# Entry
Amino acid sequence: MRIFLAIIFIIVLIPFYFMVIGSIQDVYGIMAMPPRLIPKDLTIENYTIFFGNRFLIYTMNTVIVASCDIIASALVSCMTGYCFAFFKFPFKRALWLLILFGIMIPPIALIIPKFVVIKDIGLSGTLAAVILPCILAPPSIYLARCYFESLPFSLLESARMDGANEWQILTKVAAPLSKSLIAALLIFASIGILNDYLWQMLCLMDAEKQTLVVGLMKEVRRSTVVYDMKMNPFGKSMASGIILFIPILVIFLFGNKYFTSSLQGGVKE
Amino acid sequence: MTRLKLPQFLLMLMPPIILLTVFTLWPLAEVVWLSLHNVNFIKFDFIGLANYYEAVRDIAFRQEVLNSLFYIALLIPLNVILSASLAMIAYHLSKRWQDSGRIILYVPSLAAGVILAQVWKWVFNAKGPINWILGLLHIPAIQWFSNGITSIPVIVFIVAFCSVGSNFIICLSSILSIDKSIFDAANIDGANRGVINRQIILPIIMPTVILIGFMAMLQAPAIFENIFLLAPQTFAGTMAYGIYQQGFQFGRYGYGAAQSVIMLVLMVGLSVLKNRLAK
# Structure
């Protein structure tokens, strides 16, 4: 059984290994069959086409979009989950059903009207068009509510007795107990925004406003349209994949210590 | 439960309510409104239900609905079997194995869609490693993304590959929450691992397994990015791909919106049905 699981782990990681070594080989190395396990004739030319004059703009845009969205999304999810976990307010049930409804519908089913709405409120082509719709993440709100409900209620109540207001309770009492929740929310938000190719591609037509995922895919398509094997389309694709993967992996590895425990719903009194 | 005071209510709940209104409720109204019109870059004419009538008769749309069913039929068993069996295997091993499983199996979820598609492009290309392995077995090379019969299973495999991590985590935590005394009793009665897996764990985690299958069912018709990047053709397209094509390639917002409404009704219908069955 151990061996079986180990084989599964290796199978899962193999594509990533080939992505790494594929991105640093020339076309003969990539197309050599049997596939080379140890790269030979290393080259960095797959990466150099991406580091053109626009790379800095793409990176800046990505940083702006990702940081705004990740922070705002985690904050909104925490606040909403907190309100739902501990308070009564009018239309609570109706609002909760709407949020659950948001989990059920796939985003792509609303992509045409969302695009029209963005145009109507005059945001089309701006980075705000990418950031704002992603902030409200129903699965994250759901996770936050469940997590907060498992927190010891007496603790929050005693903070309230001591005269703390709700904002202080959320930031000073609940948040420090919820590191794993916050890590999970940050990771989900970053996967969501850094991988969200379709929406960003539709919204950001202007090259000055494009994010990494849109810009790099544009380059990749340019090099594969010709389908000239000497251009090494596969190497360039894989190099773009590596560039896109690094930020997500870094965030995951940072948050991982807290992350996995929150999916198991483990909270200690 | 205390009552939320008005200023706090405004501060904490206004942002989600505004976002929900602008980016979910408004689009929901807009999609119905658009679907009743013939919309393109210059026109906006009311045409009633003609878009729906066209969708019913459209061969491409029918193909995409059929494909979606095909995707559902393949993705549910693959997701369920993979995650449940891996979780059972990991359960019987030490905590170190479980923890590394949670991390390693989750890594593909991080790279789902655009990133991993860059590798699959190479893996499944005509002269790629998969065809090389087939060549060793004297099977002629296959053009994986040139027809529906091969591209749909390949894309299902790719999607399952990326979602196995989170499903594994859910399954494993559901197994770990089972009362340990049940297993002790089974061990005393001399049950071996297979019996424990089949007769104890599986029935207890059945609700979780059904949930995973259900999520796969909702996920399958919405598969888009892998199709768009690997096999952008109607023969492999899901309903999501059809919506994209009508809306953003052909510029027919009205007809695309009608397809979206049909997809929404199907998805919400399936969810409601599932909730009924669960009760």
About this structure: The longest helix of chain B spans residues 59-91. The two ends of chain B are 27 Å apart (CA to CA).
